[in-house]
Amino acid sequence: MQFLAVLAAFVATAVAQTSYTGIASVYEPNEHFPTVCGTKLTSTSRTVALPFSVFNITQCGQIVAIENTADQFGGEVTIGDLCWDCEGHNIKLTPAAFETYLNETNIAAGVKSFPADYVLGIFGRK
């Protein structure tokens, strides 16, 4: 019986997952004003701003899995804001979050964007 409960929870989570492909770029959050999610972010925050095509206020604080598809670096960040100028499924990351998806060569070269796949609904809130 316990196995069925675990399986049911896994299926419910899997159904709720949604994946997207876009371009991830870096942005400096305004440290003086709260975001759409109601929090103040800094450049050291590990957060993502989602585009209108994806964002829902109920997602604030949820964890997103992101992969730099060019370099196969992956990790998790927290949804912290709405990206006002992101087109399609493109996203923006705070500097601290952005650098975790780059190798040393790309950091030294000053790379400001990368192709990204990201998945919502795998994890809960941070």
From TrEMBL:
Protein's organism: Mycena chlorophos
Protein name: Uncharacterized protein
Keyword Signal set for record: yes
Signal peptide: 1-16
Lineage: Eukaryota, Fungi, Dikarya, Basidiomycota, Agaricomycotina
Alphabetical keyword list: Signal
